[in-house]
Amino acid sequence: MKPWKHSLCRLTGALIAAAAMSLPAAAQELSFYYPVAVGGPVTRIIDEMAADFEKENPGIKIKPVYAGSYQDTVTKVLTAAKGGDAPHIAVMLSTDMYTLIDEGVVVAIDDLLKAPEDKAWLNSFYPGFMQNSQTGGKTWGIPFQRSTIVMYWNKELFKQAGLDPQRPPQNWNELVEFGKKLTQRDAAGNVSTYGVQVPSSGFPYWLFQAFTTQNGVELMNPAGTQTYFDKPEVVQALQYWVDLSRKHQIHPAGVVEWGTTPKDFFERKAAMIWTTTGNLTNIRTNAKFDFGVAMLPAGKQRGTPTGGGNFYVLNKTTPAERDAAVKFMKWATTPERATKWAIATGYVSVTPASWETDAMKKYLAEFPAPTVARDQLKYAKAELSTHENQRVTKALNDGLQAALTGSKTPEAAMRDAQREADRILRSYR
Q1: What are the pLDDT digits (tens) for 360-371?
Q2: Geometric angle at alpha carbon 384, from 45 and 262, rounded to 5°
Q3: Is the pLDDT of residue 24 over 50?
Q4: In which band, very low, low, confident or very high, does the pLDDT at 18 lie, cut at 50, 70 and 90?
Q5: Residue 257: phi, psi to the nearest 5?
Q6: pTM of the prediction?
Q7: Do 276 and 298 fall within a single domain?
Q8: What is the pLDDT of residues 229-256, one digit of tens each?
Q9: What is d(CA 256, CA 398) in angstroms, rounded to the nearest whole number?
């Protein structure tokens, strides 16, 4: 090669290398499965979160995929994982933890953390939310959209019934007493307003766990290998729920729909309802009357299960993708971001630090109701979660609905549910 050609080649190579170095690195793209049907305000909030994160972290792209219900989301994640096309990160129920571990599709968060401040971040969440996030000495999920069950009451209907509109029922006896005063019937005896409504579709086991916790009993062991559905205290709790409709006639009979319960509250068909704190913003927006938010009434004690979804990192991810996933989870759960999310949705802000932000203090000064769910955490227990969780909860849900519709006694329903749970979990013990 002639000297001038050799020099030209070297110059061209240097220019190409310099140009390559000056180009921005390809963005790390993370697919993010989120459990909500397409459309609606929460979808817009997630889209805004992704856009805000990308502005602050230009090397990472977040691609939200709206996967339907929680049940749809875990099914799609497991199917995609088997097909080699799993998302990088997903929000799924905290109670899906054992299933995701058993299927081998998630990685322990502890194994992804490197710096001392990462460990501090892991210890920054409310302990009550970590009960459904850790097992076997490892952390598998990061609390994100978490909740407890709270009671909403219509203050106008309380006043009309001669009750103090500022004082909700404090215990099971008062719930019945108040419910009788609040239940309204027309001249023909048809109920126009029920005193209380507790939904029993969608997540019946979750609402039931409030009753059992209040009756001083747990539904499962910490290892997720044993359930206690047929304990006398569990049967008693179910009998109380059944009696609200059958004996006291202050609650709708049969199965009550999860999705229509807030609407029944708006339309004054129910004076008091039990539902997730995640409905707080919805109720605040749509209730055309003064309402209150309270801790659930006590049986032997106060109590509620925690609920909601955690972030999970899928195992079919590269080290760079895992680093990006950790960065996104840390960003989404900073005090400022957790505050913004809680205010926008009604979910419980997941770290104590978020309740100390200026934005949260200003919000609570105008609307103190969110503190109810936070303060109730001291009485909260881990949500029902076991190996083969969907099958075990189905056994319980089937038993609950059999008792509520009257096709089985509470005792028979819980005995059958326990027998089925024992059959499912035998191999894990």
Answers
A1: 999 999 999 999
A2: 45
A3: no
A4: very low
A5: -70, 135
A6: 0.88
A7: yes
A8: 999 999 999 999 999 999 999 999 999 9
A9: 14
**Rounded to whole angstroms, how far apart are CA atoms 217 and 418?**
15
Tally of helices (H runs) and strands (E runs) in the chain: 18, 12
Select from 306, 324, 340 the last residue of a domain: 306
Q: How far apart are CA 295 and CA 371, in angstroms?
A: 10
Q: Are residues 348 and 277 in the same domain?
A: no
The residue assigned the tokens 């959209």 is 145
Examine the pLDDT at 22 and tell me if it is beyond 80. Answer: no
User: Domain for residue 426, yes or no?
Assistant: no
Residues 81-120 pLDDT 10s = 988 888 999 999 999 999 999 999 999 999 999 888 888 9
Query: What is the number of other CB atoms lying within 10 angstroms of the CB of residue 286?
Result: 12
* Six-digit token string for 202: 């969608």
Structural domain of 286: 148-215+230-306
141 and 156 in a single domain? The answer is no
Using alpha carbons only, give the angle 397, 398, 399 rounded to the nearest 5 degrees. Answer: 90
**226 vs 422: CA distance, rounded Å:** 7
Q: Is 353 domain-assigned? A: yes
- Provide mean pLDDT across the span 290-305: 98
**How many domains does the chain divide into?**
2
Do the strands 380-381 and 184-185 form a parallel or antiparallel pair, or are they unpaired? unpaired
Amino acid at position 301, single letter? Q
Same-domain pairing of 291 and 326: no
For Cα atoms 118, 120, 124, give the angle at the middle one, nearest 5 degrees: 115
Same domain, 302 and 343: no
**Tokens representing 398?**
């089937």
Report CA 115 to chain centroid distance, whole Å: 29
Per the document, the length of the chain is 429
Helix 232-246 and helix 204-214: axis angle, to 10°? 110
Residues 319 and 335 in one domain: yes
List the CATH number of the domain containing 362: 3.40.190.10
Helix, strand, coil fractions of the chain, as percent rounded to 5: 50, 15, 30
Q: What are phi and psi of 310, to 5 degrees?
A: -115, 155
Residue 152 bridge partners (DSSP): 273, 293
pLDDT at 7: 47
Residue 365 lies inside a defined structural domain of this protein? yes
